[in-house]
Amino acid sequence: FPADHGLDLAEKDFTVNTVAGAMKSFFSELPDPLVPYNMQLELVEAHSEYPHAPECPFPPDQSPQGSMVSRQQRVNLMTSENLSICFWPTLMRPDFSSMDALTAARSYQGIIDLLIQQCPFFF
């Protein structure tokens, strides 16, 4: 993908697991996590104050491509919560050697869940 941004995955014969694995690999190989370390503490604090976001105010046709997976949850069973469980460790890359990171794990997952649910607002 970095070599060809016009790559159409739909016309390739890749399994869903292959595409998801490639995405996780791409994000894990970035020099810094997608959610920068310097923002993570603030996000955890904000999430602890407001753990549940209101419904997304944007109609589905205005949502970015990234949310299409969770909008197909009846077929693929990938709710925003399931996606966040799969992707939060890769997107945030916490240092699991510290007790703080282990304690905040549920918050990290919730933050990614909210980012997926509210993607039109954030992205």
TrEMBL record:
Task: Name one process (GO BP) from the record.
Answer: regulation of cell size
Which part of the chain is the Rho-GAP domain? 1-123
Q: What InterPro entries does UniProt report for this protein, alphabetically?
A: Rho-GAP_domain, Rho_GTPase_activation_prot, RhoGAP_dom
One of the record's GO molecular function terms? GTPase activator activity
Region of interest called Disordered, as start-end residue ranges on this chain:
52-71
Q: Which Pfam families match?
A: RhoGAP
Q: Where are the transmembrane segments?
A: none
Query: What's the superkingdom here?
Result: Eukaryota
- GO cellular component annotations of the record: cytosol
Q: Could you identify this protein by its name?
A: RHG35 protein
